[in-house]
Design a protein that fits this description.
By secondary structure, the chain is of the alpha+beta class. About 20% of the residues lie in helices and about 15% in strands. A hairpin with a 5-residue loop joins β6 and β7.
């Protein structure tokens, strides 16, 4: 199964993507959020307290969330726990392993005493914070993503389907977690007082969040953006919408382990600076084991669908040119490799990372893929191993 990508970020290239869209399944309070400007950047960004100082809290959380607090700290440090949900799982264990390896701790993948002690210097970072949904988000059009390729090709963008989905991507979680943090549409709080409520969705599960509403979110950080450093303004908007900061380490080497399901990134001194859970390959489209390099990065890429390149799609299906968007099969970014037809990219289904198979490429959450794209260059080496 293959996709062909068309992107101005990779001039003179028709890149055939190796099989990248199949899914075969397998705290302590809130930081004060400044009023949001029209871009929403300042109002949604993290406000971490200085070392040794306590966070300023307007609406205390209803409960302690120690696992979520560890997740938001690990992600700040470059060790992505995938979807931030306050639960133990593969992605959280991988994030712990990455942190432990970087600190020369026993690599257990567990939040053991030694790891808790090493993370304790960031105990003043709360698990959640309360933000106000920017007024500009009320002007964002949301619509359901069509099912078929021909139907997808007719729309101008494969964007978010709802405010809840857009918020979930911004705060690296799921609409279900946002619903849990905001029972009845209000931020969970110790005293029960909160902002305006949101209307319940038709099925009574996830509230229909609205601009101007206060809500509790995972306290994701590492989201400071230097707008002047990003020439591609559409990519700048993507970084803002995903809460991915521009201050990222330069990565000299990437190692992807198919059996372990992780991607490690090392700097020029071969220090581990980032680690993410990934989805790789399948029996029909295995990960191409070997040594490669990063050839280029396509930001917000459209792509061409060719049924002849997909083993599980009838050749009678028609070719289609699909628009870009976070809900496209390769998400918000494509990191092209010197191995023809293969790359590292995002996904429209972050909750499936580490739990499904791909068609040969390396798939991350959109926010992890965007963060990695800010780390790599044309000199970054890539090794795939089993």
């Amino acid at each position: 199964m293959r996709f062909t990508l068309l992107s101005a970020a990779l001039p003179f290239c028709l890149i055939t993507l190796g099989a990248c869209a199949s899914e075969k399944a397998e705290d302590n309070g809130t930081v004060r959020a400044e009023p949001a400007d029209e871009s929403g950047i300042d109002g949604l960004a993290a406000r971490d307290p200085a070392p040794g100082q306590s966070a300023e809290v307007d609406i205390p959380d209803a409960e302690q969330r120690p696992l979520m607090q560890a997740q938001v700290v690990l992600e700040r440090l470059g060790f992505g726990p995938g979807v931030i949900d306050g639960k133990q799982g593969l992605s959280f264990a991988n994030a712990l392993k990455g942190f432990q390896e970087s600190r020369d701790l026993p690599i257990t993948g567990e939040l053991d005493d030694a790891t808790r002690d090493a993370l304790s210097q960031w105990d003043n970072i709360p698990a959640t914070r309360v933000v106000t949904i920017p007024s500009a988000w009320g002007q964002v059009p949301f619509s359901a993503v069509p099912d078929g390729m021909a139907e997808k090709a007719k729309v101008t963008q494969l964007g978010y389907e709802s405010m809840a989905e857009k918020l979930a991507e911004r705060f690296h979680t799921t609409p279900a977690v946002l619903a849990q943090l905001n029972p009845g549409g209000k931020p969970a709080s110790a005293d029960g007082a909160a902002g305006a409520s949101a209307a319940a969705s038709p099925d009574g599960s996830v509230p229909q969040f609205a601009a101007g509403q206060k809500l509790r979110v995972p306290n994701v950080g590492a989201d400071a953006i230097d707008a002047a450093s990003v020439q591609n303004k559409e990519w700048l908007a993507t970084l803002q919408s995903l809460g991915v900061g521009t201050d990222q380490p330069e990565v000299a080497r990437i190692l992807v382990d198919e059996s372990e399901g992780w991607l490690k990134a090392f700097d020029g001194e071969d220090r581990l600076v980032a680690m993410f859970t990934v989805t790789t390959g399948s029996k029909q489209d295995p990960l191409p084991i070997g040594d490669w390099k990063v050839k280029g990065v396509a930001y917000n890429p459209p792509y061409a669908f060719d049924p002849e390149l997909f083993w599980d799609v009838p050749d009678t299906a028609e070719k289609q040119q699909l628009p870009p968007g976070p809900n496209g099969p390769v998400g918000v970014v494509w990191i092209d490799l010197t191995k023809d037809h293969y790359g590292i990219h995002g996904t429209p289904s972050p909750e499936t990372i580490g739990r499904t198979e791909s068609h040969g490429c390396v798939r991350l959450t959109n926010w992890d893929a965007a963060r990695l794209a800010e780390m790599v260059s044309g000199s970054t080496a890539v090794e795939f191993r089993r």
